[in-house]
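Exercise: predict the structure of this protein bound to pyridoxal-5'-phosphate.
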Amino acid sequence: MYDISKIREDFPILSREVYGKPLVYLDNGATTQKPKVVVESLVDEYYSVNANVHRGVHFLSQQATELHEGSRETVRRFINARSTSEIIFTRGTTESINLVASCFGEAFMKEGDEVIVSEMEHHSNIVSWQLLQARKGIRLRVIPITDAGELRLDVYEQLFNERTRLVSITHVSNVLGTVNPVRDMIATAHAHGVPVLVDGAQSTPHFAVDMQALDCDFFAFSGHKIYGPTGIGVLYGKEEWLDRLPPYMGGGEMIKNVSFEHTTFNELPYKFEAGTPDYVASTGLAKAIDYVSALGMDKIYAHEQELTRYAMQRMAEVEGMRFIGTAAEKDAVISFLVGDIHHLDMGTLLDHLGVAVRTGHHCAEPLMRRLGIDGTVRASFALYNTKEEVDVLVEGIKRVSRMF
Ligand code: PLP
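Solution:
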């Protein structure tokens, strides 16, 4: 059913070696590898369809436009949005969050207004709001976490007041692997009349997300973390919100009519897509979505959950192993430290054994401060990883530990 060796053949990079050792790629939280169908779609489009999209009367432009708009429909179906008007192509999660911070902030926030974020946010969901803070004098309210790495939901409920304008939280922590109960958190926010932005960078690659079931107001994710190309991502927004927001950038595509006296803006989603979009990358993203959908998000989830459980079990054999993030609901991300071995030393030595893991603060310095550490080693799994690779990781960690 889930034929892992056949799946791995779809990803040519997985058969390469580093330092003469088979590559064990466990840095999927940072970016995933790409299946052939995705890379080939990019080459095919440049070789046989390439033309700027929209407005073109000629054959190629219309074909490129059909592909691009077809990709939007693929994204819509994948996340179960109501309409393609709600799917905005961006460069990735970071740009999507910045778009909301900028446009929502412009339209609906003034000095003293508050945004609720959490202690486990990626910098992109902190600094975007701090830029708004500098411009408008808004305030950030922060949901604390428990030692296991779960959100303190009791405190969350107490953070709402008449100045709360938005909740902006991550679906899955890129450091702790914690899967936050965003559906309930959205319901709580809505009970206070407050909309919610969900950072889906680390959830979309691992399990199915459903905009209508979650009822979230904005949702951001990146193509490159879900086996698609770099430089493309998505902002989902409920039409009723997007309609009320001002444009993000000015330029071609996003206008209806322009004069020096008065300019009118295009309809959704084009109002938020100034300039030539990355229409080739959108095709690649759609191919990646088709790829994971054909495998089945439920099967991918089951495979990765089994790998994560197996890895936690095997890694616990290592003396001095300390897991950072032990939430009950945990995704395929394992952060750890061993004894007093520095994360950089562990990462560098594992690298020489062919194992690619990430080390450092993972763009979550406030979380590191909360945990009283300056970094972790992070192994993050994808649909193509195997138990044998986990064994290589564990043997590697043991070997490094013996050296210290
Ligand atoms: N949010 C989370 C939780 C992430 O893990 C990342 C990337 O690691 C981002 C946002 C930023 O994504 P991107 O760099 O693709 O914009």
